[in-house]
Amino acid sequence: MNLIYPPICGICGKLNQNSLCKKCEIELKKQEEINIINRNGEIENKYFDELMYIFKYEGQIRKLILDYKFNNKSYIYLTFTNFLLKNEKIFENIKKYDKIIPVPISKKRKKERGYNQSLLIAKEIATKTNLELVNNCLLKTKNIIEQSKLNKEDREKNIQGAYIIKNKQLIENKKILLLDDIYTTGNTVNECSKTLRQANPKKIGILVIAKD
Ligand SMILES: [Zn+2]
Q1: What is the mean pLDDT of residues 141-151?
Q2: Which pTM does this prediction carry?
Q3: How far is the CA of 59 from the centre of ligand 1 (A)?
Q4: pLDDT digits (tens, 9 = 90+) for 14-37
Q5: Sign of the C-alpha dihedral computed for residues 114, 117, 121 and 123 taken in this order
Q6: How far is the CA of 22 from the centre of ligand 1 (A)?
Q7: Whole-angstrom Cα distance, residue 165 to residue 175?
Q8: 40: CA distance to ligand 1 center in Å?
């Protein structure tokens, strides 16, 4: 994919080389709600060990993520990535991992959208940290109904068995950071983590832009 991204702030659209202008950065900063959740109540019964997020999934952030995902504004990924890497707490925590894996999308979805929104962010993080991007281990083989169109009860069933694992040796004994855009019920990243566990990673952490 050779998309050319405009040198603009992903939020206000003004010319900017860092994809986020000072004014919008200050606004984003106000909405920031960095959190790193380790094994406690909320993720106790999950297949992953840690959950990191930057924002609550609401208001302007929600709108930005939807634009980035569905309205052909994929360049907003740079805005998010630059913003999250500026946070020292997140940056230091990310660096503890060995490899970064984006939550995969199906071939059909890729064709419709033209890009995997999580891969764009994961690639950028890999470029700016010591993490290695791995995009040939976790694959989505089932075309499922879009999770956001289902109620919470049906999401868990819908996603079951949607992923497969290949090249297990790339994951074995490694600390894996799984990247997704939003965390709502957690079913998607949990199913991915369950699949990744087949390859015996040392640790699985989840990084998302926003959490419900
Ligand atoms: Zn701006």
Answers
A1: 82
A2: 0.91
A3: 17
A4: 999 888 999 999 998 999 998 999
A5: negative
A6: 7
A7: 16
A8: 37
